Amino acid sequence: MRLLVDRCAGRRLAEWLRERGHDVLDASDMTPDPGDRALLQRASDEGRVLITMDKDFGALIFRHGSPRVGMLRLPHCPAADRIRLVGHALSRHGPDLEAQAIVTVRGDRVRVSRHAG
I want to staple 43 with a disulfide (CB 3.0 to 4.6 A). Which of 25, 56, 69, 106 is the partner? Predict the structure, then answer.
């Protein structure tokens, strides 16, 4: 899967995903920080699923007309927990994410908002 890992989600997560064969772009490698709009645009342009802990991306997509991309939004938690949650979410919701769904993980609950258009 083609992924863009936001800075807040962590370099350790990006490395773990690469080790499992994913094509990963780590926003931590982009200097200076391009900002949320630019990350969404890059994910859209390159067909990547965005992995983040930042709530601002939903507002950019739904209220401000930024491109819709598949997005996995994680809770603030230790890196080991994020890795476990991402592994679970990709195995269960990978096709949804590739179809531009927004998957939000909150503890043991997962909400999937599928793209209607």
Answer: 69
